[in-house]
Design goal:
With about 325 residues, this protein is an alpha/beta fold. Strand 1 (about 45-50), helix 2 (about 55-65) and strand 2 (about 70-75) form a beta-alpha-beta unit. The chain is globular and about 55 Å long. About 40% of the residues lie in helices and about 15% in strands. Pfam families: OTCace, OTCace_N.
């Protein structure tokens, strides 16, 4: 694997490979000593042009547990905020000897530009670009789904026959886009649920069905209900009347939680707006995978960095990770 820029072009075998290596990584995290020597001598740069404490810390933990050196580069207060271009920043990282760059950027397509420009030889991982994609979030969601639904014996399994309803602000959500493509590639059936104002105008090319009524979507009995964060910072236009109205129509409250099938799970990429898209009762219920998603995110990002920088596992490491 040279780069990880999106899930739309990620093949089924590639996706399963990442998920299976993530299983190995998760096994190593149960040990007393969680650190592996695998990426010793490699340098991973977290290049964040947008704030995201959770994703940055998750990538940092993943790199450090693989013994890589980590450089955190925040655009705020740096030369970037003074007008330095992406090209100048990339060439600086190249001169510093970066082996991998994890980039979050407000412009859709910035990670691809970085990966294909020739400015840098490092592998590039997209940690979220504009309203385009967030591939490692979708991978950790798929990993969490697979583990919850199939238990410890999930290696090599896809998500054929699994139904997932993704609820909320589809329009602005890179998480939704990455999940639609990845879950479809893995065989899942996807329903997008939300206000007509928060569904993109043309989703005819998306492998998903559209539903505007959350209660009807819940009545269909999905295996997983994925609640998206309402991005209040992007709500400068009136996408819905009031927050109270939104919670009433599309929020997951206790009543809707009880209406879900007994074995359905509740997911959320975080951070959560409790009381808006999800109630405290739903967020903290045994069905909720929110904290598991955070834990699994480290294992999945370890797998991505490993496959980017180390390739195939040597036999001794396979034994150690089993």
């Amino acid at each position: 694997m040279r780069n990880l820029l999106d899930t739309r072009t990620l093949g089924r075998e590639q996706a399963l490979r990442i998920l299976d290596v993530a299983e190995d990584m998760a096994d190593t995290q149960q040990r007393e000593i969680k650190k592996l020597p695998t990426l010793r001598g490699k340098t991973v740069v977290n290049l964040f042009f947008e704030d995201s404490t959770r994703t940055r810390i998750s990538f940092e933990a993943a790199a450090k547990r693989l013994s890589a050196d980590v450089i955190n580069f925040s655009a705020k207060g740096s030369s970037v905020s003074k007008g330095e271009s992406l090209q100048d920043t990339a060439q600086t990282l190249q001169a510093m000897g970066a082996d991998a760059v994890v980039i979050r950027h407000g412009a859709s397509g910035a990670p691809r530009t970085l990966a294909t420009s020739g400015w840098i030889t490092a592998g590039v991982v997209n940690a979220g670009d504009g309203t385009h994609e967030h591939p490692t979030q979708a991978l950790l969601d798929a990993f969490t789904l697979r583990k919850r639904l199939f238990g410890s014996d999930s290696r090599g399994r896809d998500l054929s026959g699994v139904s997932v309803a993704i609820v909320g602000d589809i329009l602005h959500s890179r998480v939704a886009r990455s999940n639609v493509w990845l879950l479809h590639t893995l065989g899942a059936r996807i329903t997008l649920v939300g206000s007509p104002t928060l569904i993109p105008q043309d989703v005819s090319a998306w492998p998903a069905t559209i539903e505007y009524d959350l209660d009807r979507a819940i009545g269909a009995g999905p295996d997983a209900l994925m609640m998206l964060r309402i991005q209040l910072e992007r709500m400068n236009a009136a996408y819905f009347p009031t927050e109270r109205e939104y919670a009433r129509a599309w929020g997951l409250d206790g009543e809707r939680l009880d209406a879900l099938p007994a074995d359905s799970i509740v997911m959320h990429p975080g951070p959560m707006n409790r009381g808006l898209e999800i109630s405290a009762a739903a967020a903290d219920s045994p069905r909720s995978t929110v904290l598991e998603q955070v834990t699994n995110g480290v294992s999945v990002r370890m797998a991505v960095l490993y496959l980017l920088l180390a390739g195939e596992r040597p036999a001794s490491e396979k034994e150690g990770a089993s």
